[in-house]
Request: fold
Amino acid sequence: MNVAATCRTAAMAGILMFSAASAWAAPTSFNFTRITSNAAEDVGSQLQMDVYNNTDASAFLNQSLTNKILFTFANSAQTAANIAEIYFDDSGFLASQTAILNSLGGFTSFSPVSWTKPNGTLKNVVLPGGNNADPDFEPTPYFGANVDPGNPSLGVNTGSDVLGILVSLNNGYSFDDISSALTSGALRIGMHVRSIGAAGASDSFINNRIPTETISGVPLPASAWMFLSGLVGFLGWQRRKAAV
Reply:
């Protein structure tokens, strides 16, 4: 293989490797601001929400999705804390909550928020302390997740735990609209966090309007690693062939 051919092969390999990595893009990430002050420790900076567009959500979940957004929730847990309830305050961007995705990382056990009474009327579901927000945080019916009863370890309480909520968008809205709504306050995500610090107090939080600059690393899917491994093997074979 001559020098020019070697350069072309190397360039093509670089392009393919970049393409494989780019196919698994980083999400838009948000930390949280505390709206109550029950705990001595403010854990807002260790709570993170990642928002994936339709393409990246499809890659993350390894399934075909149409007009959907994936929200994931994590807790770096430098201070003991347990994300137990998640609510959406939506101004009409979201059509429906498609699924709660437990244990995308670590272990979680959440179920949809119970919104109706036995007679079929809506319950008065609130984010504790939601009236401290400006404007008041008003949970949107039929969205959100509550930790299942039982052991506190069912919540998002370790650095490896990741909970997902998949939602579909109303017609005419895109990921860019959701990003703009999160930064303008037209769409807000609230969470109630229990067992904070040594005293085990609880507080409520709302997502910051400015995305975080530090994005959690997202691993390449197995198919991409297989592709890259095969590519490295191919280049090794090309070098051996050229040496013969």
